[in-house]
Amino acid sequence: MSPKAETPPHTGAPRPAPDDLTIAGPRGPIAYERWGGGPPLLLLAGLGSRARLWGELPRLLADRFTVLAPDNRGVGGSRGGETFTLAGAADDAATVLAHAGFAAAGVIGVSMGGLVACQLAVRHPAAVGRLVVASCGARLTPSHRRVMRFFEIAFTRLDPAEAAEAFMAFAFASAFADKYPSFVDQAARLWTLDPDDRPGALQQLAALRAGWDMRADLAAVACPTLVLAGEHDPLVAATATRELAAAIPEARYREVPGAAHSVLAEGGGALLAEVLEFLST
To answer: For residues 109, 115, 116 and 121, what is the CA-based torsion angle, rounded to 10 degrees?
Structure first.
């Protein structure tokens, strides 16, 4: 494998470490990282995820934005408090923005984080200036139920590192994984649950398995919205993400050819530039 092929799609010069902050929020503690300076940008990650799942992306964005990346309710520094719900997670996100001193922000949400981002735009419309959501559906479908069952088995029967390795088979398309094996290995390490995070991840999973249907609520989203999907996403079909985009007034839909679930990484620098242009318009 050539050095060029081994280079991760999102790399850059080292930048200062973030401020690690914790809020005593109304629903329980909320930990978040704060990077850089400039207009605020809130990053909302997926199932079982701490802020660390974003890898180098906050560093890359810190030259242009004040990046805020919380741990999801139940994991990392956000363990404890009320049981995870999508609505509650949206309220947590609004609490982070207020604590950071911002009335509104651009928001990027991926997978479960995309659902939280949509809930944030519905429940706290003034808090979201521009919205980018990726790899999520407006409702729980039969195929999503099977995906939830996979995660239940992975979280309860596999070692955390083994579960993360199993997830990588679905997170990235095979062509991307063959071209950037070191990047995928790093993603597996970042996604590996700490043992103390397993109960919180299972709470998140239980909330998702209970079901959701945001199609009617999404009609109230008033901010400019960009919706991203992977053409070959095996976890959330592109048709499901397209349905979510159709439910949001005037949302822009972008399908990444050949991509699986991790569209922000798989789309590379060109997609990241498109997202940043959208957020900065």
So the answer is: 90
DSSP for 92-111 reads HHHHHHHHHT-S-EEEEEET
Mapping DSSP to helix (H, G, I), strand (E, B) and coil, where does residue 210 land? Answer: coil
- Using one digit for the tens of pLDDT, what is the confidence trace for 143-174? 999 999 999 999 999 999 999 999 999 999 99
**How many other CB atoms are there within 10 angstroms of residue 28's CB atom?**
18
Any idea what DSSP says for residue 17? P
pLDDT digits (tens, 9 = 90+) for 114-130: 999 999 999 999 999 99
193: phi then psi, degrees, rounded to nearest 5: -70, 135
Other CB atoms within a 10 A radius of the CB of residue 33 amount to: 21
Q: Give the single-character DSSP code of 261.
A: S
8 A C-beta contact, residue 68 and residue 75: no
Sequence-distant (≥ 6) Cβ neighbours of residue 277 within 8 angstroms? none
Query: What class has domain 3-280?
Result: alpha beta
Residue closest to 159 by CA, chosen among 189, 193, 202, 203: 193
b/e per residue, 117-154, with b = 16+ CB within 10 A?
Answer: bbbbbbbbeebbbbbbbbbbbbebbeebeebbeebeeb
- Complete edge-to-edge strand list for the sheet that includes strand 28-36: 19-25, 28-36, 66-70, 40-44, 105-110, 128-134, 225-230, 252-256
Boundaries of every domain in the chain:
3-280
Q: What are phi and psi of 117, to 5 degrees?
A: -60, -40
Question: b/e for 181-193, b at 16 or more Cβ within 10 A?
Answer: eebbeebbeebbb
Residues counted in the chain: 281
Cα angle 189, 236, 246 (rounded to 5 degrees) comes to: 135
